[in-house]
Design a protein that fits this description.
alpha/beta, Rossmann fold, 2 domains, 7-stranded mixed beta sheet, 4-stranded parallel beta sheet, 15 helices, 11 strands, globular
Length: 372
């Protein structure tokens, strides 16, 4: 475990405007509803702060993680680009499916540690498209089965996440759209749209804070893989109304590609494969399209161990939040920050719990009871 200041943080930094179009789009999808913003006095007392808020992505569009927000918006924008412009007015997913059908047979493809791939597969099913998903060699059966349950063809790479990304990139053709949340040279639009899609979470947080009269967060903790979600956090909390908010990136000890890159002063790739139980964070290279915002906008870089994540899962379960290994990283990071003396008594801490029990067997073994 380590807690370090981001050496690349820039005080004068413009993250751009927070996009509003994704929220309007998400409202049209079946099952859209804001996820809860929970207040927990128990965790506030433990961390020695005024308030702790948990944005609980236990269920989003019927899936056990937040990823559908980015995958759906990026898919929509990619299909618009293929169409040559915006689709005609549509109000329901059936309308959109009809418009998309005019493009002919298409397949969506992606690499994933679990949640993103399932979201892409769900979007493909909603639109009547095919889906191909590549997973790293350490992906547990529960996550593979969940992706396959959406109708996707799931194949397993012989390597890690970065290997799966490279393999899927080669699948792109005129009938196959790659919907990746990380970028590479010549492939930047889709990952940028995924970042934009996550903005809906923070529109909800703003509305929920206004409705309750709660103070805005002074510290935000975000689990980090390639950095797409972290870039969305930076976009929201580097706006003028949140300039003093401290943003904390939390990574597994053996998958801390953002921390390593920040310390190197440039994007680097970690050696070997990453094997943390925080499967959604097992990434060896930051996304280049996210990097400018992540490197300049994050204040603190924190690494946590698998045992830290397990303890955090139990801690969140104790206050009624079902969080998977990756989702619980935010609390693990907050505990590390508190132990380092970097939380203040007047702080309002926002924990972004990005997933529920995506591996039910592991969850029960760690927490001691089934999710739910």
């Amino acid at each position: 475990m380590s807690v370090v200041r981001n050496p690349m943080r820039r005080a004068e930094f413009d993250p751009g405007m927070v996009p509003t179009a994704p929220r309007a789009f998400h409202r049209k999808l079946p099952g859209y509803a804001p996820t809860p913003l929970r207040v927990t006095d128990v965790l506030a007392a433990e961390l020695g702060v005024a308030d702790v808020l948990v944005k609980d992505e236990y269920e989003r569009f019927g899936l056990p993680a937040f990823k559908m927000l980015g995958a759906s918006w990026a898919t929509y924008r990619a299909l618009e680009a293929l169409h040559g412009g915006p689709f005609e007015d549509w109000d329901t997913i059936e309308d959109l499916r009809e418009r998309v059908g005019e493009l002919g047979p298409l397949t969506l493809a992606t690499a994933t540690d679990g949640n993103h791939g399932r979201a892409v597969a769900r979007m493909a099913a909603l639109l009547g498209l095919g889906a191909r998903v590549r997973v790293p060699n350490i992906t547990v059966a529960a996550r593979i089965d969940a992706i396959a349950s959406e109708g996707a063809e799931v194949t397993i790479s012989s390597g890690g996440y970065d290997d799966a990304v490279a393999e899927v990139a080669a699948w792109a053709d005129e009938r196959t759209l790659v919907i990746s949340d990380t970028s590479w040279e010549g492939y930047e639009d889709v990952p940028a749209w995924i970042i934009d899609g996550y903005s809906t979470i923070f529109a909800e947080v703003d509305e929920q804070l206004a409705a309750t009269g709660a103070q805005p967060p002074t510290v935000v903790l975000v689990p980090v893989g390639v950095g797409a979600f972290a870039a969305a956090v930076v976009t929201r909390f580097r706006q003028p109304d949140a300039a003093s908010t401290r943003i904390v990136a939390v990574e597994p000890v053996d998958a801390a590609c953002v921390m390593a890159s920040a310390q190197a002063g440039e994007v680097i790739t970690l050696e070997g494969e990453q094997h943390s139980i925080m499967a959604g964070l097992n990434c060896g290279t930051p996304s280049p399209v996210a990097w400018p915002r992540v490197s300049a906008g994050i204040d603190w870089l924190v690494t946590v161990t698998d045992d830290d994540a397990r303890d955090a899962m139990r801690g969140l379960a104790g206050v009624g939040v079902v969080a998977g290994e990756s989702g619980a990283a935010s609390l693990a990071g907050a505990r590390a920050l508190a132990a380092a003396g970097e939380l203040r008594t007047h702080d309002c801490v926002l924990l972004l719990s990005t997933e529920s029990a995506t591996d039910p067997v592991s969850y029960e073994q760690i927490v001691g009871h089934r999710a739910g």
